[in-house]
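User: quick one, sequence for these tokens?
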């Protein structure tokens, strides 16, 4: 039996996945939990999907939406972020695993991310 194909050769970029968790022990000045970030280096691919300008803000803000591809690990959550090439991208909802239809094994993880510039 041949080994399962991997997605590694399709992920040429290096990013830092920032997973956030709430810290209820040290609330902020309003009594809300603070966020603790832990980072891990990951291989990834970013595919541009579109951009728009929010004119109601002063100054106007450019929003760029991308689709993020990651190795088949635990999908990131909607409050996580990733840094690629010095740009921080915020997740827009939870990431999700894509599975191979032949055997149901997770092939890669996808997520929608947004850069605010």
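Assistant:
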């Amino acid at each position: 039996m041949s080994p399962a194909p991997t997605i590694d050769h399709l992920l040429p970029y290096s990013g830092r996945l920032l997973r956030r968790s709430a810290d209820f022990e040290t609330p902020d000045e309003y009594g809300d939990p603070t966020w603790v970030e832990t980072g891990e280096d990951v291989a990834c691919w970013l595919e541009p999907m579109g951009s728009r300008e929010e004119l109601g803000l002063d100054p106007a803000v450019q929003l760029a939406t991308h689709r993020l591809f990651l190795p088949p690990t635990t999908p990131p959550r909607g409050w996580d972020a990733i840094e690629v090439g010095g740009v921080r991208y915020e997740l827009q909802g939870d990431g999700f695993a894509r599975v191979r239809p032949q055997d149901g094994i997770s092939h890669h993880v996808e997520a929608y991310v947004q850069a605010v510039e």
